[in-house]
Prior knowledge:
Layout: H1 5-20, E1 26-30, E2 33-37, H2 47-67
Antiparallel strand pairs: 1-2
Helix pairs in contact: 1-2
Amino acid sequence: DEGGGGAEAxxxxxxxxxxxxxxxxxxxxxxGGYVLRFAVGASLTEERHVDGAWSLVQEKAKxxxxxxxxxxx
Length: 73
């Protein structure tokens, strides 16, 4: 939910990704859930750019989960 732990975790993930300067995410609330958004609008964007951004999101999520004792390897 918007005020729950999932919302805070997603907010932290969004901020961690954005701090890198390599990709930019925003958020919205859908059905009460805090959801991250990644828009691809540039005509020169290639699949490798999207793949790189997704890898970055995964990397930052793992770092945050590990720091919170939630590492699920």
